[in-house]
Write a structure and sequence with these properties.
Blueprint lengths: L6 E5 L1 H7 L1 H13 L4 E7 L2 E2 L2 E2 L8 H7 L3 E5 L6 H13 L5 E6 L22 H11 L10 H8 L1 H22 L1 H12 L20 E2 H13 L5 E5 L3 H4 L8 E2 L8 E3 L4 H14 L4 E7 L7 H10 L4 E5 L17 H6 L5 E3 L4 H13 L5 E4 L4 E2 L7 H5 L3 E5 L8 E5 L3 H14 L4 E5 L3 H5 L3 H7 L7 E4 L8 H4 L4 E3 L10 H7 L4 H11 L1
Helix pairs in contact: 1-2, 2-11, 7-8, 9-14, 11-12, 16-21
Length: about 525
């Protein structure tokens, strides 16, 4: 086998393996998948920041992990029994059909005469006096940062071993490449991250003659088109695949006995799902993971999404049911503040496409951004394919969809995103009938638009035109930056309600009439 190695993780006793909810989600899946090459070390030192763990945590970690399908080994003296640790690792490697948890009972701050086995060494430095005392207690006479020669020799012995193993691997791969040229080329692309030439030509394009459809359905068309040309594209949903529309139809489920498949069944584990996708993205440049749930449920996985941005992991977050337009599920499921919150997060692209072309454009952007995650907010309700939308426009974040003005001086600029671009376009048509020059702009991604040249931004939103109206079925927070003090932002600054999409849009004033009224007020 070209790739066959063990993954070891050292886990803090309190923060990860014991208490954090994500640990149960991720470890449950690891057990389900039978990840026999995963070995986790659990530092069982019984101390948390607030004191002994018994003040809040008394469960049996061993029993829990056995229930999750893990093999569990206990090293009772992790301070000095190195042979027991070596034996545990050897035993773990021999278990092929399930992951292994090695619980190592230790003394936190071992060797510190005054602070060992106390919370005072959990989150703060020992201090110079206690460091000196610890050195004496452990019999360590060397200066800070000094590596003794015998230690250096011990670890350096691995250098020639590593070189020999690399040479052996290169020889095996060369033989493989001769026999399987296409497969070897694919493997190289997965390792390097180089995208196949012309991959984006696989993305579908649409015209106004195409039937109206929900952007979640258009998203599935894009995913399935890309899966044929991007061997590293894989992912799934948190138990909502049939609603998020994320199944790759030409592939089966990734499971213990079918690791070659690409549909990942994450189950109801949103936080774990995001974390796993981060790991996939960071493991190899050519792996392009996506994951999906309802947009409002990003609240369950926000920490993982933030880590995507912080770690420069190019995960594609496919988030459907993006507004009050989802209907009768009501305010618990209707995102309001979510668009604004992700626009505030650094190093992430928040994309809200309006139709087929914009959905395809969002996927092109997401695939190209390997060091920046992307969130695609997609509709449940059907939307028409609008004239003037384009993949190229999405790449710029904001662009003109329609305009009857001259000299870059429209009477008013109407700005929409997602499902509300249709409303802005209809309002523009009505205002033109009344003699106004109207520019309709799609602002599918604020982040991408901000990155364009000043000249381009001026060509779309000229500073001299202060008569601006935005419409988006979400919080108006942040829109003043776009419409200015003299413009108007139409949106929703309260929680939603349970009603059919058409009725609730009317009740909340997300309508053509509201845009026309606002436009007449500002120009």
């Amino acid at each position: 086998m070209l790739f066959s190695y063990f993954s070891c993780k050292l886990c803090d006793t309190w923060r990860w393996l014991s208490n954090e909810g994500i640990s149960n989600e991720a470890c449950s899946l690891a057990g389900h998948w039978g990840l026999g090459k995963l070995i986790a070390f659990y530092d069982d030192n019984h101390i948390s920041i607030d004191g002994d763990t018994e003040i809040a945590f008394t469960e049996s970690v061993d029993t829990r992990f056995e229930g999750l399908g893990w093999h569990v080994i206990w090293v009772k003296n992790g301070n000095t029994d190195y042979d027991a640790i070596r034996a545990a690792i050897k035993e773990a490697k021999a278990v092929k059909d399930k992951p292994t948890l090695i619980k190592v009972t230790t003394t936190i701050g071992f060797g510190s005469p005054n602070k060992a086995n106390s919370y005072s060494v959990h989150g703060s430095a020992l201090g110079s006096k206690e460091v000196d005392a610890t050195r004496k207690n452990l019999g360590w006479p060397y200066e800070p940062f000094h590596v003794p020669e015998d230690v250096k020799r011990h670890w350096s012995r691995h250098v020639p071993d590593g070189a020999a193993l690399e040479a052996e691997w290169n020889t095996k791969f060369a033989e493989y490449e001769k026999k399987y040229k296409e497969e070897a080329a694919e493997l190289k692309s997965l390792a390097s991250g180089e995208l196949p030439a012309g991959w984006d030509k696989a993305l579908p394009t649409y015209t106004p003659e195409n039937p109206a459809d929900a952007t979640r359905n258009l998203s599935q068309q894009c995913l399935n088109a890309l899966a044929k040309v991007l061997p590293g594209l894989l992912g799934g949903s948190a138990d909502l695949a049939s609603s998020n529309m994320t199944l790759l139809k030409m592939f089966g489920d990734f499971q213990k006995d079918t690791p070659e498949e690409r549909n990942v069944r994450f189950g109801v584990r949103e936080h774990g799902m995001g974390a796993i996708c981060n790991g996939i993205a960071l493991h190899s440049p050519g792996l392009i993971p996506y994951c999906a749930t309802f947009f409002v449920f990003t609240d369950y996985m926000r920490a993982a999404i933030r880590i995507s941005a912080l770690s420069e992991a190019g995960v594609i977050y496919v988030m459907t049911h993006d507004s009050i337009g989802l209907g009768e599920d009501g305010p618990t499921h209707q995102p309001i503040e979510h668009l604004a919150s992700f626009r505030a997060m650094p190093n992430i692209l928040m994309l809200r496409p309006a139709d087929g072309n914009e959905t395809a454009g969002a996927y092109k952007v997401a695939v190209l951004n390997r060091k920046r995650p992307s969130i695609l907010a997609l509709s449940r309700q059907k939307l028409p394919n609008l004239p003037g939308t384009s993949i190229e426009g999405v790449e710029k974040g904001g662009y003109i969809v329609s305009d009857n003005s001259t000299g870059n001086k429209p009477d008013v600029i109407l700005i929409g995103t997602g499902s509300e671009l249709e409303i802005a376009a209809k309002a523009g048509n009505e205002l033109r009938k009344g003699g106004k020059s109207v520019r309709v702009v799609s602002l599918v991604s604020w982040e991408l638009f901000d990155e364009q040249s000043g000249e381009y931004k001026e060509s779309v939103l000229p500073a001299s035109v202060t008569a601006r109206v935005s419409i988006e079925a979400g919080s108006t927070f942040g829109w003043q930056k776009i419409v200015g003090d003299e413009g108007k932002a139409i949106g929703i600054d309260r929680f939603g309600a349970s009603a059919p999409a058409g009725k609730i849009y009317k009740e909340f004033g997300i309508t053509v009439e509201a845009v026309i009224e606002a436009a007449n007020a500002v120009c």
